[in-house]
Structure to design on (616 residues):
């Protein structure tokens, strides 16, 4: 098993190397002269020259890439052109906010999704199943940004229950923080709840059909025990894969949610960076998000070994 | 061989094959539309497509006609969904917006399908080093969340309908690579591929004439499953101001444009979002229907 984990670790590192290279290449893929594109072209020859050397543009692309990568390992991702500060510092301020919201939304959506999935699988064909399945199908299709605006209109503007935007930490102002995070969390979690519900339902239905469940039933086990102990354990395996994907998806969703509710996180930072063609900042954001996704994938795979002993043998 | 020829002349065999195909198609259509939900979604879908094609005929106003005197109006008999900050008719802009969504969606899925299927087929067929390179790069692209990847690509390609389709095509292609790779790996071991190889067919001919036609079902299923999500992504990018730029009406940018007037005319922002949701729900329902109808296990044939 150690060998399997090491192998996965090696693969992850290789993938990260490729991602970082592709991310770095963003500079060279920019249309026209990269420095002109990044600054909007209205700079003095001096500034141009400074930037030219700052970004090592006089060196071949592979050398530049390794210099950038070396910098990344020592916590130096260059200077942000729009914030005029170090990329690492700008990102460092924003990461905790996005992580806080994403992880909370994740923690909400996993148990709810599994619960709804079990209910609709066990009561297959009932009104409850139809309602859950239909709602889940619709919820996976709703644009998050629209959902956010809809919530904002209903709960903030019409009912006046919640503040329409902003973000403070719970330790700064607990009540306000809770009130402010309800709508963003709901937006982030709804898609996750819906997709986990769908996955749980379909894999539960798959497992319930199998022989060992019939055996368990026919040896007289209680229906509840069969479902929650025997069926659920195996049905949750594909759900674990999905959970890993969802956590990455939450980061993607935070782009929209942070935009709608004016939250200073990674998502809104990335959009700002793209809008102002702040390439070092874009590279930093993409690299960090990629590292994060890779780590989640790795964790998912390792968890898998523990819950599915078949992998150990293979 | 001679026995076979006696019983079944080439002409008869061709006819039988044709009939078999026609029967399969009939069963497929019957299974697909036997579900009410799929039927209703298909009808709505056809209506949306018709609206997009007939936009110049059915929209009450020119979507880009600026009328400063009529700006920021609430819904009324003259403007059913009100007007925007330039006095443009929101309903007309929504009708025209369907064109953008549909064109970008179809084009992006087509691009993703062509590139992804080709790369996946090459990876699965040749294996070895080629497979390693393609699979690793695909994996690297896949670890970046799709939205983030699309946003990063916006910096390179910029906005506009064609660029949007290219961006979303690239960020969606890995699904096809993976699907096609595993598909080819299972097909290439079959006897008829071996027979084709023994007849002296070239690799490319084997891939295009024998493997590709036998992978059509999963390709179609993947395409129908992806188009909804692609349209959602386009709307998202346009909402962020990175996708389709003004003055072209796109549903995403309409939702964003109406945000500032949420109190005075909520319909301006909420209606185009509803249109996106409706289109995507219908596409995904039909997509699921197609998947189930093409799956012989669910059709009760196996």
């Amino acid at each position: 098993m150690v060998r399997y984990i090491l192998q996965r670790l090696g693969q992850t590192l290789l993938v990260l190397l490729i991602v970082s290279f592709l991310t770095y290449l963003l500079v060279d893929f920019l249309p026209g002269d990269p420095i002109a594109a990044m600054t909007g072209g209205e700079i003095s020859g001096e500034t141009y020259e400074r930037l030219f050397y700052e970004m090592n543009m006089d060196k071949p692309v592979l050398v530049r890439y390794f210099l950038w990568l070396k910098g990344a390992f020592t916590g130096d991702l260059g200077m942000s052109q729009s914030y005029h500060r170090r990329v690492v510092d700008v990102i460092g301020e924003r990461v905790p906010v996005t992580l806080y919201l994403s992880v909370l939304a994740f923690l909400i959506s996993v148990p709810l999704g599994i619960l709804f999935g079990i209910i609709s699988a066990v009561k297959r064909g009932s009104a409850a199943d139809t309602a859950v399945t239909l709602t889940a199908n619709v919820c996976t299709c709703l644009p998050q940004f629209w959902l956010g605006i809809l919530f904002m209109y209903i709960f903030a503007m019409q009912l006046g229950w919640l503040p329409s935007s902003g973000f403070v930490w719970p330790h700064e102002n607990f009540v306000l923080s809770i009130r402010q995070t309800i709508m963003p969390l709901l937006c982030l979690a709804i898609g996750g709840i819906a997709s986990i519900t769908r996955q749980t339902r379909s894999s539960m239905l798959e497992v319930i059909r199998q022989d060992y469940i019939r055996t368990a039933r026919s040896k007289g086990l209680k229906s509840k025990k069969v479902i929650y102990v025997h069926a659920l354990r195996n049905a949750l395996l594909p759900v674990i894969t999905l959970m890993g994907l969802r956590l990455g998806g939450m980061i993607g969703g935070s782009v929209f949610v942070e935009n709608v509710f004016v939250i200073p996180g990674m998502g809104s930072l990335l959009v700002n960076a793209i809008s102002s063609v702040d390439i070092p900042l874009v590279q930093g954001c993409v690299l960090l998000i990629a590292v994060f996704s890779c780590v989640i994938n790795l964790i998912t795979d390792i968890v898998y070994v523990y819950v599915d002993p078949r992998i150990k043998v293979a | 061989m001679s026995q076979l020829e006696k019983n079944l002349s080439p002409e008869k065999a061709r006819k039988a094959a044709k009939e078999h195909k026609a029967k399969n198609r009939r069963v497929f259509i019957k299974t697909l539309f036997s579900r009410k939900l799929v039927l209703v979604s298909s009808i709505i879908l056809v209506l949306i497509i018709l609206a997009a094609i007939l936009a110049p005929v059915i929209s009450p106003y020119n979507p880009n006609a600026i009328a400063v005197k009529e700006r920021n109006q609430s819904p009324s008999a003259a403007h059913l969904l009100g007007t925007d900050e330039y006095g443009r008719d929101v309903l007309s802009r929504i009708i025209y917006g369907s064109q953008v969504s549909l064109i970008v969606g179809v084009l992006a899925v087509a691009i993703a399908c062509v590139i992804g299927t080709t790369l996946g087929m090459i990876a699965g067929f040749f294996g070895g080093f080629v497979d390693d390179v393609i699979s690793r790069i695909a994996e690297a692209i896949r670890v970046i969340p799709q939205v983030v990847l699309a946003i990063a690509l916006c910096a390179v390609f910029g906005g506009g309908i064609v660029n949007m389709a290219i961006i979303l095509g690239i960020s969606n292609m890995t699904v096809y690579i993976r699907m096609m790779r595993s598909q080819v790996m299972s097909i290439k071991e079959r006897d008829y591929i071996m027979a084709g190889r023994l007849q002296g067919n070239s690799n490319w001919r084997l891939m295009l004439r024998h493997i590709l036609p036998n992978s059509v079902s999963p390709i179609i299923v993947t395409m129908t499953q992806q188009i909804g999500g692609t349209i959602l992504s386009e709307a998202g990018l346009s909402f962020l101001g990175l996708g389709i730029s003004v003055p072209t009406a796109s549903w995403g940018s309409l939702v964003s444009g109406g945000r500032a007037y949420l109190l005075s005319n909520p319909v301006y922002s909420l209606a185009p979002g509803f249109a996106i949701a409706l289109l995507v729900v219908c596409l995904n329902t039909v997509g699921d229907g197609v998947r189930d109808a093409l799956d012989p296990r669910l059709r009760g044939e196996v």
